[in-house]
Amino acid sequence: xxxxxxxxxxxxxxxxxxxxxxxxxxxxxxxxxxxxxxxxxxxxxxxxxxxxxxxxxxxxxxxxxxxxxxxxxxxxxxxxxxxxxxxxxxxxxxxxxxxxxxxxxxxxxxxxxxxxxxxxxxxxxxxxxxxxxxxxxxxxxxxxxxxxxxxxxxxxxxxxxxxxxxxxxxxxxxxxxxxxxxxxxxxxxxxxxxxxxxxxxxxxxxxxxxxxxxxxxxxxxxxxxxxxxxxxxxxxxxxxxxxxxxxxxxxxxxxxxxxxxxxxxxxxxxxxxxxxxxxxxxxxxxxxxxxxxxxx
Length: 296
Description:
By secondary structure, this protein is an alpha/beta fold. It has helices at residues 30-40, 55-63, 98-103, 124-136, 213-226, 229-234, 239-248, 272-284, and strands spanning 2-7, 45-50, 71-76, 113-117, 120-121, 142-149, 160-168, 171-184, 187-190, 196-197, 202-210, 253-258, 264-265. 28% of the residues lie in helices and 27% in strands.
């Protein structure tokens, strides 16, 4: 099983590259705890998507820590990585988005895989539940979202973007991207659209269980995207949109898998203290060893 971590963000609200911030008790990156949890649940292939200038550093950093039998790929998400026969001559200050980040791994993944953000902590049970799902659905085209509750994923320090889900039992019906969610009284307001939520809604935190069939779908979407010069200059390709289009076309079904644990992230610099405290607490409780990786 493969774990794909998206670590190509610029950390504009955090103030620096949060993917490489030493949040753990022994200076570990937050993504190292995700990798540790995944390996404990049978994952044996780690793929990290990052900026080109960080690939060598990150590969060396992880390779010297991970067990020798774990396959590791560190790939660069580049604006120049386009479908064959496509071109783009406009201005593009940032990468093409999360779906394109996943598409970057098309040459190294040929089995079911999990996609996560490298700067989120998803909780140990989430990886067990994801691994169990993959084993149960290894040979079909069923995808899954590991879902979290909206009120448990907000920041005290500013607005956040979340994919608000419509579900029927354990089936995902749709994901609605909301860009500026904050507490307002006893509810949650999206200050972009004005919508109000109770806080009990299921949301996507970009913890997806995918099959290799997603690569062809992303490429098809990408070709259409690039044909619209204005869209290609200003917008991005998002994983939820790709999954939703496959779902609505009847190409896949998507289950919602319970996370079974807590989530926290580091969107703002002021989130850092909380993250450091949580990781230290979990280490003190014995959920993690310290240092996280044995010396080799």
